[in-house]
Specification:
329 residues, seven-stranded antiparallel sheet, two-stranded antiparallel sheet, alpha+beta, elongated
Length: 329
């Protein structure tokens, strides 16, 4: 073979080798671009997810997972009625709205440690007492103190013990002492005379006491109870019989309202600021011996509002308030 032919053959071999190298470089560049720039995974020797029995959706879920919310965001999400449909339970839910909110001189709000009242000087008693009773508070850590005493915080002066002495009427609690046995201080505050009202002994020790016992049973069953009670003062003070030098009015009827939360599940019950639904009981009972029991005197909350002029549970969303107050459970 001549030198010229050998040179031509060698040139062809080098040219072919150069083309192979060029193709390899281009291929490697394409793979690098796909894996690093376009986000496509490089081929793997591992079997696909289906081959190992792992659901493909698991990988997809991980790729769309959002960062965990902060505690504040989690609380907002848990209590927002827009996202979960739960009913909000404001901290002031038990406290009703009355003429005290318009600064009527005959309505004086009094705040105790664990309950509130609105005192009516012209009747020498409160027209309502309101508090929230938790299941966890149904423990007996205090003995009944029986330390009845005038309330020095009532600007016009409350009724006194002498007003009830030999009157034939009991110093009947509105906020009952037994509901506050979890604290000696809380129980003692129920013995201020501003929390007392003239009750017939058969009423106070009979139907009224049984209803108080039932409220504690409901609080234990439902986890919480919002309780409001008082005398029905639907006539001028001068139209009532009275006792004592301070002319303590003897009410003809008493009312009690109990609002109870209904929880969807344990997670719902664990968030005290909301619930899935509500149920309520309301009673108007005559101030006398009632052998037929408190269930015979069930009414709607609307009726109690009409008789007393007090707006209960105004802090609820309007449609929820209307539904609950019209029902007679």
């Amino acid at each position: 073979m001549s030198r010229k032919k050998r040179k031509s053959y060698k040139s062809k071999i080098l040219f072919a080798f150069g083309i192979i190298i060029a193709i390899s470089v281009v291929a490697l560049a394409g793979i690098w671009y796909c894996t690093h720039k376009a986000g496509v995974k490089a081929p793997s020797s591992e079997p696909p997810a289906q081959a190992t029995g792992e659901p493909q959706a698991a990988e997809e879920a991980q790729s769309t997972e959002q960062p965990a919310p902060s505690p504040q965001e989690a609380q907002q999400q848990a209590t927002s009625p827009c996202t979960d449909g739960l009913i909000q339970l404001p901290s002031n839910l038990a406290v009703p709205r009355c003429a005290a909110h318009t600064h009527d001189s005959d309505h004086e709000l009094r705040h105790f440690t664990d309950y509130d009242i609105c005192y009516r000087e012209s009747y020498e008693q409160a027209e309502w007492s309101a508090y929230q009773l938790e299941k966890s508070e149904l423990v007996k850590n205090a003995r009944r103190s029986d330390d009845f005493r005038p309330d020095p915080e009532i600007s016009t002066g409350s009724a006194t013990l002498s007003d009830y002495r030999k009157s034939g009427y009991d110093r009947g609690h509105l906020a009952p002492a037994a509901d506050f046995a979890y604290s000696q201080t809380a129980m003692s505050e129920t013995f201020f005379m501003s929390n007392m009202t003239a009750q017939a002994p058969q009423f106070n020790r009979g139907v009224w006491k049984k209803l108080e016992d039932q409220v504690r049973t409901w609080a234990r069953t439902y986890g919480r109870a919002y309780v409001i009670c008082g005398p029905v003062l639907d006539e001028p003070a001068e139209s009532y019989a009275t006792i004592g030098a301070n002319k303590v009015v003897i009410p003809r009827y008493f009312y009690k309202i109990i609002l109870l939360p209904l929880y969807a599940d344990e997670a719902d019950a664990a968030t005290p600021d909301d619930c899935a639904d509500l149920t309520a009981y309301a009673f108007i009972i005559p101030n006398k011996n009632c052998d037929d029991g408190f269930t015979a005197y069930r009414v709607t909350i609307d009726e109690v509002e009409a008789r007393t002029g007090i707006d209960f549970f105004y802090a609820l969303e309007d449609s929820v308030e209307a539904r609950i107050e019209a029902a007679c459970n």
